Amino acid sequence: MTWVKVCGLSTVADVEVAAEAGADAVGFVNVPASPRFVEIDQALRLAAATSLATVLLTMDEDPERVLRILEGGPITGVQPYGRQRRATAEAAAAAGYLVLFASHPGPDLDLDSIPGVPLLDTRSGTKLGGTGQTFDWDMATGLGRDFVLAGGLGPDNVASAIARVEPWGVDASSGLERTPGIKDHGMVADFIERAKGR
Fold it and tell me: Choosing a second label site near 73 at 20 to 30 A (CA), which of 32, 63, 97, 137?
């Protein structure tokens, strides 16, 4: 059954809805430019409210600081971006934490060099994800390695994406919102149920 992460959560109610609907993981965005931004203290409180896997999204964060956050619990994984993303991913993976490493499928993608689990997302300019747009899913077929599919997924297309690409997991954020940064609980539940094939 497909592993499902719901990202960009900001309230305990968001987390509870995701858990009740059967999500495997939830994500918290510690990126100030994002409408889904939460402070580290808030991310820790949200992570403490669930037994699901919890993933912290970071931007240009010092790897040692990220490890200190993870070591303090209860966040169990990281999804790093920016200049420090590879160093952070490698440090977290070496320490045994879940790592989702955002990448764009294409001729330059080297899956063997990726620390952790590849998260295939849509590139837009310099952004490696968070665009809310899909990419050509044919680029993600037959890769020979487990990966998480992201980029423009929502209740209306997740089942077809899974059938076409056969990813190990899926991840959604903006596709579960009617207002930027505010999750629609009905859409969250619907997304998870369709991703799980219920």
Answer: 32
Which residue ranges in the chain fall short of pLDDT 50?
A: 125-129
Residue 10: which of 32, 34, 36, 30 has the closest Cα?
Answer: 36
Question: Token pair for residue 122?
Answer: 């849509």
- Residues annotated as catalytic (active site), given as ranges: 7, 121
- The CATH number of the domain holding residue 175 is 3.20.20.70
Residue 43's contacts (CB-CB under 8 Å, 6 or more residues apart) are: 28, 30, 54, 56, 75
pTM of the model: 0.94
Query: How many folded domains does the chain comprise?
Result: 1
Tell me how far apart the terminal alpha carbons of the chain are, to the nearest angstrom.
10
What is the domain range of residue 137?
A: 3-195
Q: Is 192 exposed, middle or buried (0-12, 13-18, 19+ CB in 10 A)?
A: buried
How far apart (Å, rounded) are the C-alpha atoms in residues 13 and 152? 23
Output the DSSP codes for 8-50: ---SHHHHHHHHHHT-SEEEEEE-TTSTTB--HHHHHHHHHT-
Q: In the prediction, which pLDDT does 124 show?
A: 56
In 3D, which of 5, 21, 53, 51 has the Cα closest to residue 198? 21
